[in-house]
Amino acid sequence: MPWELSKYDATLTEAEYSTQRQEGKMGEIIVTAKGQIEAKFLSDLQYQMKSLALKEEWSLIYLVEWLDRTIPHRDIAPDESTGFLKNMVHNLIYDRGLTLEELVLDKYRLRQAAILKIDQCRQQAKKSGYHSLLFPDCATPLIVSPERCFTYDPANYPCNTYYQGAYRFQNHYYPQIGDLKNKGEEFQCAQFLDMLPEVNFWVRNLERRPSHAFWLQTSTDKFYPDFVCLLNDGRYLVVEYKGEDRWSDDDSKEKREIGEIWERRSNGQCLFIMPKGKDFDAIRAKIKS
Fold this sequence. Notes:
Layout: E1 27-31, E2 37-41, H1 42-54, H2 60-70, H3 78-95, H4 100-105, H5 107-132, H6 185-195, E3 199-204, E4 216-217, E5 222-223, E6 227-231, E7 236-239, H7 250-264, E8 270-273, H8 281-288
Parallel strand pairs: 7-8
Antiparallel strand pairs: 1-2, 3-6, 4-5, 6-7
Helix pairs in contact: 2-3
């Protein structure tokens, strides 16, 4: 979605661009013609660099133009990036008390700080644009439709590793189960699904396989739930296992949000559940609800 960088705060905090730089202990060591050793330490070298920088015609606008020219930003219009960077340099000089001379000397570190700041704004814009699409009354709302359907290929299940445990699963869609350890809470969740009488068959969904696995889009990435089940009544059940220690973090909240929206807009054909730790009874309750 289009976004405007000028709407974001260009201020660099001390944490984002520190003025307290540690001086190194390295320098230049010279052996003279007489066999004597001379050392020029970093402070001396910095002073010489500062003198060289002063010989160039640097102005505030020239520094802004240099930053704008050397920072890649294909998704940002030139007038947007120039204004943002100008505000950034203005703040450093007039609010934080740095001199233009210091910024020019430190321009490469300043550029890196500007790149990170712009990307931070970019990610905020992505998240804002993403969340606007979740509302049913937006211009292009998220819908769940049979015309946009994923199908598991019965002959292609490109997992990284195969399950090697002693327990024999009965209802997995593929003859072998991929990327599943033979112990732990996620394994116990798979056992629970395998024994549920309402489940016709289930699939251990693969990570990072967009052409071979079911996924839902979040604001930053594709979300690959752990298990996908076909129920005996024709409905689909998607289960994302999360330990209690991670159930309430931001990543889990966003995954629950998109999963629950996907369920609500499926006209009763799809179910989504993220049980809190080993609360597997919540899965049974979801099926019966």
